[in-house]
Design goal:
This protein is an alpha/beta fold. It has eight helices and seven strands.
């Protein structure tokens, strides 16, 4: 008999099923939980990708596609953006938002793309759901071209009061309550727990470097609740 996932966690098929299940309320919940600021944070992540017109870009764990759409504004009509996700329910909504983007079902731990292909590879609020974070970061690095950027946008846990106190109350009490109102308390209990388990900014920077990136740096915004990391794949 094998042990199941740790308390408060889900195995990969359960996470995939959860995102399929909550796809219809996902965008509304994001806007409620972030007061609509998540679009601004995605714009900053797209800036750190440093892509020019005509670039070829991959957004991993794209969800309903907001970061991919932000990237498309930067690469223009001559560029290409692929948004990949393992949740077909999320991708169905993303396709409705913007048919100009190529939406593909794929697992972040085993990306079906050639090595050294993309000018930039991004993930927004999805890395904490990787079943194996280091494997996911390694795959993102693998498919980036030499000189290309890898960007990770994620929620992080502030450590100093009063923000840390507010953050704890919000994610431990308010977010699960909103989830119950939205009809899926299990999902919106899992999601705050996934934030708590995720590495802090310094550790994540180290793990990006271990994945093979150089010039790794990060910025904190929203009072330290949001971290945006970026690194560059070394030139061959």
């Amino acid at each position: 008999m094998t042990d199941g996932p740790a308390s408060g966690t889900l195995d990969e098929p359960q996470v995939q099923a959860m995102f399929d299940r909550i796809a219809g309320v996902y965008d509304r919940m994001n806007s409620v939980m972030t007061a609509g600021l998540h679009h601004r944070w995605r714009a900053r992540a797209a800036d750190l990708a440093q892509v020019a017109a005509g670039a070829d870009v991959l957004d991993v764990a794209t969800g309903t596609g907001d970061l991919a759409i932000e990237l498309l504004e930067r690469v223009g009509p001559q560029g290409r953006v692929i948004g990949s996700d393992f949740s077909q329910g999320m991708l169905d909504l993303a396709r409705v938002k913007d048919p100009r983007i190529t939406w593909e079902q794929a697992n972040a731990l085993d990306l079906p793309y050639d090595t050294d292909r993309f000018d930039a590879v991004t993930v927004g609020f999805g890395a904490r759901n990787f079943a194996d974070l280091d494997a996911g970061l390694g795959e993102m690095t693998r498919v980036a071209r030499p000189g290309g950027h890898v960007v990770v946008l994620e929620i992080t846990t502030p450590t100093r009061p009063p923000l840390s106190n507010f953050y704890s109350a919000w994610f431990d009490r308010v977010v699960p309550l909103i989830g119950r109102i939205a009809g899926d308390s299990d999902a919106y209990t899992y999601l705050p727990n996934s934030v708590k388990r995720f590495p802090g900014p310094h550790e994540l920077a180290q793990r990006l470097a271990a994945a093979g990136l150089q010039d790794v740096h990060y910025m904190l915004t929203a009072g330290g609740i949001i971290a945006i990391h970026a690194g560059r794949k070394p030139e061959a």
